[in-house]
Amino acid sequence: MRVLLIGGKTLFPQPTGADAHVVLAKPAPPGELLATVHLCRAGLTPSAASKSAALTPRHRTVLVVDDSEDAQDLICDCLSSAGFTTRSALNGKQALDQLMDMPAPGLITIDLMMPEMSGMELIGVLQSYRRLARVPMLILSAVVVPEAGRLPGVEYLSKPFSNDDLVDTVKRLTGTT
To answer: CATH assignment of 61-174?
Structure first.
């Protein structure tokens, strides 16, 4: 896949494969260019519709990214009971694929140890993509990564955690009550 920088409108064609390409208008913001390159390397093509989707500050949708379906179910059930809408992905690549086809969620929960794309890799890509950089991220992991707590817009909740702690943290990060 090629990323072309040319003048004019920003275009995100849908074809994939070796001959596919993404066109960004010059000057492309550095974060948008870097994020587009990461998406292309992951085999994903951003769509024009997802680029224009805006983040609603009190949005109650949470994307749960965890390679354990059992953990996903527990987190989604807990947040659904608290009035949140949930979506889930089994790894960072699946999360990026979903995020390209949906409005920005109010929060993304991220496990660190996942196949294909780790939680830290996902956070790096999300923070470099302008539309998603403002989405709060909550690491839910038994693995302690000291630098994770120092990343802007990223908080950490250690597994195991109580349902109350999870809901309270999600409400605080999404600005909901």
So the answer is: 3.40.50.2300
Q: How far apart are CA 127 and CA 40, in angstroms?
A: 16
Q: Smallest Cα–Cα separation from 12: which of 53, 54, 52, 45?
A: 45
pTM over 0.70: no
Where are the chain's structural domains? 2-52, 61-174
Closest CA to 32 of 62, 12, 58: 12
pLDDT in tens, 114-152: 998 989 999 999 988 888 888 999 999 988 877 766 778
Q: Are 113 and 119 in contact (CB under 8 A)?
A: yes
The continuous run of DSSP H or E covering 155 comes out as strand 154-158
Which residues, given as ranges, of the chain have pLDDT below 50? 1-20, 47-58
